[in-house]
Design goal:
Elements lengths: L3 E2 L10 E2 L18 H12 L10 E5 L7 H4 L3 E4 L5 H11 L4 E7 H7 L1 H10 L4 E6 L34 H7 L4 E6 L3 H13 L4 E6 L11 H4 L4 H4 E4 L6 E2 L5 E5 L5 E5 L19 H7 L9 E8 L17 H8 L9
Parallel strand pairs: 3-4, 3-5, 5-6, 6-8, 7-8, 9-13
Antiparallel strand pairs: 1-2, 7-13, 10-11, 11-12
Length: 344
């Protein structure tokens, strides 16, 4: 799908049909062979024309890590920020320029370690940015140390006796911050990835999309249970709004809410089908979405993918009581109010 814009990118203002090529920069794409980042980049570039927004009205902001290269490969405005600060940079830009479509690309180390506070505050404030969190459960750029999402017991260069820290669940973390849009998808599933990007772009406010992304050098095969042809149907729990949650090669398994309120995986033949949980991402209370996020401790077990939550809420910086521009006199008065010092 593509869109026609009047002020075509590099087209002298004549009508121009946007295509993938409009979003591909002239920079050589350089990640390790087989890296999942290639698939995500291609999907994003292919999807962008659907928005009908010219590249000069789109910004990609990245932090430090393999995902940080993303901004160089998009022929839009962009910025490669310092470690963990991409959400903060995006917040400043979103506050000043409501006319821009702002995207953050980050990794599990960048966004959940040094950048953790910036991430959760951007989500709780509902800043109008789309955050793509590439989760490969390892530090790839610095050559294979444990990240905040590495599983307990994992042997890495920084944890030779195994990871002892309990890992973050990015979807659960975002839901705990009451993010208004939270989703999970997989680098190798172009159709699902694009559908989730489409939903995130349509959301009015902050959107967090966790993307399971394979690192073939330092953490290869982590998501095989969800991507391997013979295993994926048994382990992908696809969330679809308004539909009972079922999965398996023959949709023979499902999710119900137990008597204690916890979610339970069941064989459909063993329960009344009316007991199956019907997915509702528009539910205002994030409790059930959080429970879905916690169904799998690791992606080696049946794991929900799709949109967990999509609800409306006041968007940060919009609709303020007063948007009057301060005069120079007012600004000078604020700067010199209270105790001041004159340095000779």
């Amino acid at each position: 799908m593509s869109a026609v814009i009047t002020n075509g990118h590099g087209n002298g203002g004549t009508p121009h049909e946007l295509t993938k090529a409009d979003f591909q920069s002239d920079q050589e794409t350089r990640w390790c062979p087989g890296c999942g980042d290639y698939a995500v980049l291609a999907a994003v570039q292919q999807f962008m024309p659907e928005l009908g927004i010219p590249p000069e009205k789109i910004v990609f902001i990245t932090g430090v890590g393999c995902a940080g290269r993303f901004s160089y490969y998009m022929d839009t405005y962009g910025m490669h920020g310092i470690h963990g600060r991409a959400p903060a940079l995006a917040t400043g830009l979103a506050s000043a320029r409501e006319d821009l479509s702002i995207w953050v690309v980050t990794g599990d180390g960048d966004s959940l370690s040094i950048g953790g506070n910036h991430l959760i505050h951007a989500l709780r404030r509902n800043v109008p940015v789309k955050i793509l969190l590439f989760n490969n459960q390892i530090y790839g750029l610095t050559k294979g140390q444990a990240s905040p999402t590495s599983e307990i017991g994992k042997i890495t260069k920084s944890t030779p006796f195994g990871v002892a820290d309990h890992p973050f669940n990015p979807v659960a973390l975002a839901l705990g911050a009451e993010a208004t849009f939270v989703a999970r998808t997989i680098d190798r599933d172009r159709h699902h990835l694009t559908a989730v990007l489409r939903a995130a772009a349509a959301h009015d406010g902050a959107a967090l999309v966790e993307i399971y992304q394979n690192c073939p050098v330092f953490n290869d095969g982590t998501f095989d249970s969800l991507t391997d042809k013979e295993l994926r149907d048994s382990n992908q729990i696809r969330l679809e709004a308004g539909k009972p949650i079922r999965f398996g090669p023959k949709f023979e398994r499902g999710v119900i809410q137990g008597g204690d309120g916890c979610l339970v995986l069941v064989d459909v033949d063993d329960v009344d089908e009316r007991m199956l949980l019907v997915h509702d991402p528009a539910r205002s209370d994030p409790g059930l979405a959080f429970s879905l996020a916690k169904l799998a401790e690791t992606p080696a077990a049946p794991t929900p993918i799709g949109v967990f939550r999509d609800v409306p809420r006041h968007v940060y910086g919009r609709g303020a009581a007063s948007r009057e521009v301060a005069t120079e006199e007012q600004l000078a008065g604020l700067l010199t109010a209270g105790d001041t010092w004159t340095i000779a």
